[in-house]
Amino acid sequence: MYEKYVKILKDHTLKITSPRLEILKYLDEHHTHPNVEEIYSTLKKKYPSLSRTTVYNSLEILKKNRIVQSLTISGSELRYDIDERLHHHFICTHCGAILDISISCPNMDKTIQGGHRVEEVQGYFKGVCKKCQTKEKGMNNNG
Amino acid sequence: MYEKYVKILKDHTLKITSPRLEILKYLDEHHTHPNVEEIYSTLKKKYPSLSRTTVYNSLEILKKNRIVQSLTISGSELRYDIDERLHHHFICTHCGAILDISISCPNMDKTIQGGHRVEEVQGYFKGVCKKCQTKEKGMNNNG
DNA sequence: TTCTATTTTGTAATAATTACAATTTAGTTT
DNA sequence: AAACTAAATTGTAATTATTACAAAATAGAA
Q: In whole angstroms, how large is the CA radius of gyration of chain A?
């Protein structure tokens, strides 16, 4: 059940610990780009000794090893994602949902720009998602 | 001296106030993508009655009017910029500097993606800037 | 089984931002 | 020019996300 995550940690010569396995599993099963609080409060139920600081620490070490990535898209908190093939993100300013945007962009290949060494590329799109637009329409029709 | 900023505010039917004029002038003269604290502490010297909350409020209203834009690139604080023609940003993980990146990208035109209404596009590049790379080399040579 | 560096844990601190109520003021009306 | 009012400014007090730190626990090596 956790073999997949054990392997990921082993491949990066990281120690196999419960918090790390649980966090990896959570991110792998929930591609909603959760924040620390969501990860913490969900896992805390199954694993009561879990500490919030451990979630912060674990995510940090997973990030350093490029296993997960953090998104600064919301502006108030970091959101986390299993680091898959390069893709961009859309955040809905109405409901807060963060959605994957799979478009190609010539700049996504981390090309060096003006002598700067680019190690990470993030494309953020902000607006109103399809669902929330539908809700808006409904509200107008009723009013 | 402030005519330019008075005009900007008038064009958006915003009240002409000292904090707004000072903040606009500061952003226009410092394209370093400052955070609230930098804007506040600098302006506080010339304008001692200025409140930090006012800086937050003013930036918020300037942002709503699309006069300035906020960047979530740093992950710990918002950085502000006079909203010029669309461009991207690079942040140096060594020195923290945020630099403009003027590259074209087919996705920058706020095209609707999968039915979502896109109102804002931000391209963030993270890595080590040219200057810091030079410093790194110097340090290795000396060590 | 022992050992040790690493990790986890909990609490306390820090930093950015927001809430809110009182005071002031820009711009309008008289 | 004086009065008026909605909006803006101000200061303080919360709130929220994150980091610092030290003690206890533990993974993996010896």
A: 18
